[in-house]
Amino acid sequence: MANMVMFCILAVVILGSALMCVATTQIMRAATFMLFVLFGVAGLYFLLDYTYLGAAQISVYAGGVTMIFVFAIQLVSKRTLQGLVERIKVSRIICGGLLALASCAVVILVLLKNQFIYTAMVMPDEEVPMDKIGMALLGADKYQYVLPFEFISLFLLACIIGGLVIARKEK
Question: For 2-110, where are the E strands, in sequence order?
């Protein structure tokens, strides 16, 4: 029962912080809310007794948010940091909503394809085995998801290089 209460608290913190992260127009507040999201996910790992993943989440991703603070201070003008921001465009809201719907559809497809929901309905008193979830996400066989993680690492590397190019001062 205590685990369920703690899970609900962490879920509210994660969802609330994630919504505030995308809703705010100030970059420093967005980075701070993202830090709360990452700490909440680390709390979920600790709740599942995955202490190594929790510690890695805090050290790697919270350190990454610190780097976002540094880049935000260096790359954004002083007027933007003081609260003068651009206007919200309707086309951006529509594109964001469509992207969110597409992301939800992908998550639902993955859940249905790997039969996590069916397994949870057949075994209502038991949890879905973590080894099954881990193999589905990180396995290298057909229909397993190790390749997207490699693409994400390349994408993050490209973002870092792009940030360094923008931050470089021209003479």
Answer: none
Q: Collapsing DSSP states into helix, strand and coil, what is residue 129?
A: coil
Return the DSSP state at 141.
S
Task: Provide the whole-model pTM.
Answer: 0.54
CA distance 65 to 39: 11
Show the tokens assigned to 140.
């290298």
Tens of pLDDT, residues 65-121: 777 777 777 776 665 555 555 566 788 888 888 998 999 999 888 888 877 777 767
Which residue is associated with the tokens 């229909």? 143
Q: At 83, is the secondary structure helix, strand, or coil?
A: coil
Burial of 64 (0-12, 13-18, 19+ CB in 10 A): middle
Rounded to whole angstroms, the Cα distance separating 86 from 118 reads 46
Determine what percent of the chain falls in helix, strand and coil, rounding each to the nearest 5: 80, 0, 20
CA–CA gap between residue 150 and residue 155 (Å, rounded): 9
Residue (of 76, 71, 100) closest to 25 by Cα position: 76
Residue pair 38/47 in contact (Cβ under 8 Å)? The answer is no
